[in-house]
């Protein structure tokens, strides 16, 4: 028996949307390290299959990449069913894929709105519903869902003191998805399904690396810990929420933000 606090996911199967890079990649690896089979959902990255193979070899688990745009409800439902047949039974979902448009609010368009909300809100909903349907149809109680929202559900990100980053649709979409988790937690509790939200602060990924260094320095200096997180630092909270140790946790939003929100 291993000593200490141990979370063992052998026999489990976790779907991670956007699991091929950034925070999602760290989450895929962490679930695989705990022993779960991993299904990575990606949109267009050419190396996603290689990424899955690498994870499979490193942790001796089944891991496979599935190309699936989370905006497409029918495709998401069919892909989750395929995953359930090939790697399942599916036991957990991390709905992590997300995008942003950075632009002054006066210039934002309906197309920008759809670009952000169709992934960050509808895409998360499509993923959650497809997973919940698998579990409800199976008539076996259980299943844990974690949304990757953001501390941006609560604050307006800045590029300098009192200067907004200008991503109104991103911030509001994250507030929407954090609340969506509460609504789904309430509806699906009778089926034994838990729905929670991980809300990261600033994390070193492709999404943040495109910002100017001066902006990143300002943002880092304004966290209590004085730095961005590494993607791996998002894994502990997420693994806990997926696990049976979180059996009394649902509808919660958990901030892993280096203390940003205390200011
Ligand atoms: P990245 O930009 O590094 O990666 C985005 C991932 O989402 C990719 O795997 C991408 O797939 C996938 N994706 C995007 N759109 C779709 C789609 N329509 N269908 C399927 N997959 C899609 O993101 P991060 O790792 O930075 O962020 C992950 C999550 O964390 C997001 O929800 C983000 O909003 C949130 N977050 C990030 C923070 C940060 O500082 N980085 C802070 C707080 C929250 P592909 O590779 O194929 O394009």
UniProtKB/TrEMBL annotation:
It comes from the Eukaryota. It comes from Phellinidium pouzarii. It holds the Pfam family adh_short_C2. Keywords: NADP, Oxidoreductase. GO terms for molecular function: oxidoreductase activity, acting on NAD(P)H, oxygen as acceptor; oxidoreductase activity, acting on the CH-OH group of donors, NAD or NADP as acceptor. Residues 12-201 form the Ketoreductase domain. This is Ketoreductase domain-containing protein. Belongs to the short-chain dehydrogenases/reductases (SDR) family.
């Amino acid at each position: 028996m291993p000593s200490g606090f141990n979370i063992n996911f052998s026999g489990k199967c976790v779907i991670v949307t956007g699991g091929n890079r950034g925070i999602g990649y760290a989450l895929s690896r962490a679930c695989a390290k705990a022993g779960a089979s991993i299904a990575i959902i990606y949109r267009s990255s050419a190396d996603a299959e290689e990424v899955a193979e690498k994870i499979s070899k490193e942790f001796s688990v089944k891991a496979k990449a599935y190309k699936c745009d989370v905006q497409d409800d029918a495709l998401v439902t069919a892909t989750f069913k395929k995953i359930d047949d090939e790697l399942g039974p599916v036991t957990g979902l991390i709905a992590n894929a997300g995008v942003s448009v950075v632009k002054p609010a006066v210039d934002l368009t309906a197309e920008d709105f759809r670009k952000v909300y169709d992934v960050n809100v509808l895409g998360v909903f499509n993923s959650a519903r497809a997973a919940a349907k698998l579990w409800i149809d199976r008539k076996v109680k259980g299943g844990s869902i974690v949304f990757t929202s953001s501390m941006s559900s609560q604050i307006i990100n800045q590029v300098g003191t009192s200067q907004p980053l200008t991503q109104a649709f991103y911030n509001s979409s994250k507030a929407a998805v954090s609340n969506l988790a509460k609504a789904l937690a309430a509806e699906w509790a009778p089926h034994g399904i838990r729905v929670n939200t991980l809300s990261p602060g600033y994390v070193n990924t492709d999404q943040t690396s495109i910002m100017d260094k001066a902006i990143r320095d300002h943002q880092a200096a304004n966290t209590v810990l004085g730095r961005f997180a590494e993607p791996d630092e998002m894994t502990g909270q997420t693994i806990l929420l997926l696990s049976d140790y979180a059996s009394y946790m649902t509808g919660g939003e958990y901030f892993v933000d280096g203390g940003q929100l205390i200011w």
